[in-house]
């Protein structure tokens, strides 16, 4: 769940997560195909866009509380959300065609900056988020077909290494939470 969020926002986060997962799962299957050409429908569908739009609208209308009880025994991704950056992206979310970079930019803004498990705190997620948002900002300047080509054909070693470090921290945190 989203700590400090009301029931509507928590429900909308769950709905958006569920709706955005389906196109991503299909994309990861397709990425194994040789000479793949990605189109907008491979990255996003109308239901996912609608779910993200509803989530962003509710988030901007009723942001989570700044103070809340932090439960123990959980692995948390936490950090500030730049509502101004998300608000600035909202018009593009309304008008951009499916498969544009805008939903990726919004989801990057929603990613936390720290991984917390008990007394363990890691800022590697924030480093990954910064790198990811920087890459996405550059990709947002490209025409959509070029964005799709770069997304599926190029490698960003710095981004890959940052993600690997985050996954290592998450594995360690999950192991601690289970013990």
Describe this protein's structure.
The chain is mainly alpha-helical and 179 residues long. The chain has 8 helices and 3 strands. It has helices spanning 7-30, 40-43, 46-61, 83-95, 102-110, 124-139, 144-153, 157-178, and strands at 75-78, 114-117, 120-122. A 3-stranded antiparallel beta sheet has the order 1-2-3. Helix 4 runs antiparallel to helix 5 and helix 6 runs antiparallel to helix 8 (157-178). The longest helix is centred in the first third of the chain and has 24 residues, at 7-30. The model has no long low-confidence stretch (mean pLDDT 86).
List the uncertain runs.
Answer: none
Largest sheet: 3 strands, antiparallel
Radius of gyration, whole Å:
17 Å
According to DSSP, the number of beta strands is: 3
What portion of residues belong to β-strands?
5-15%
Overall mean pLDDT: 86
Q: What string, H for helix and E for strand, traces the elements in order?
A: HHHEHHEEHHH
Distance between the termini: 22 Å
| Content-based structural category | mainly alpha
Largest beta sheet: strand ordering: 1-2-3
Helix content: 55-70%
Shape: globular
- Please give the count of helices: 8
């Amino acid at each position: 769940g989203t700590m400090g969020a009301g029931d509507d926002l928590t429900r909308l986060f769950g709905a958006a997560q569920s709706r955005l997962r389906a196109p991503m799962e299909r994309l990861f299957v397709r990425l194994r195909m040789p000479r793949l050409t990605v189109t907008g429908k491979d990255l996003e569908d109308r239901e996912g866009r609608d779910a993200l739009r509803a989530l962003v609208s509710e988030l901007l209308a009723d942001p989570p509380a700044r103070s809340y009880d932090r439960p123990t025994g959980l692995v948390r991704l936490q950090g500030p959300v730049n509502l101004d950056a998300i608000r600035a992206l909202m018009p593009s979310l309304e008008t951009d065609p499916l498969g544009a970079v805008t939903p990726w930019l919004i989801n990057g803004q929603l990613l936390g900056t720290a991984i917390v498990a008990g007394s363990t705190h890691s800022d590697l997620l924030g480093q990954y988020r910064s790198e990811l948002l920087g890459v996405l900002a550059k990709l947002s300047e490209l025409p959509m077909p070029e964005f799709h080509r770069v997304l599926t054909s190029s490698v960003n070693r710095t981004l890959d290494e940052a993600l690997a470090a985050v996954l290592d921290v998450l594995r360690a945190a999950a192991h601690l939470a289970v013990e």
